[in-house]
Amino acid sequence: MSILDNFSDWKAFLGDRVEQAKQSGMESDTLQNVAYQIGSYLSEQVDPKNDQERLLKQLWDAGDQQQQQALASLMVKLVQNRNDANAGS
């Protein structure tokens, strides 16, 4: 089973990678740029596996570059918030 099959697994995977990047010293701007590149790749190369991914792809495809960067930034923030909440538990 792929991590893309389940949205919760995808968020956990992305959150772990974001946390690793932060711990290795990656700056926020660089992290946002990487998230944008990943979003572009997924939109162009990967078929959505569930309703959440289909919605993200539709939002991505509807937006211009600035809006796509904002969406990528929001995804990073979403998984960072998950990581922060889990750290406080």
Largest sheet: none
Q: Decide which structural class fits the backbone.
A: mainly alpha
H/I helix tally: 4
Give the rounded overall mean pLDDT: 86
Note the gap between the termini: 29 Å
Q: In terms of per-residue confidence, which ranges show pLDDT below 50 for 5 or more consecutive residues?
A: none
Number of strands: 0
Gross morphology is globular
Q: Give the amount of beta strand, in percent.
A: under 5%
CA radius of gyration is 13 Å
Percent of residues in helices comes to over 70%
Secondary-structure element order, N to C: HHHH
Written description of the protein model:
This is DUF3243 domain-containing protein. It comes from Brevibacillus porteri. The chain is mostly helical and 89 residues long. It starts with 6 loop residues before the first helix and ends with a helix. 80% of the residues lie in helices and 0% in strands. α1 (7-23) crosses α4 (65-88) and α2 (28-45) packs across α4. The chain has helices at residues 7-23, 28-45, 51-62, 65-88.
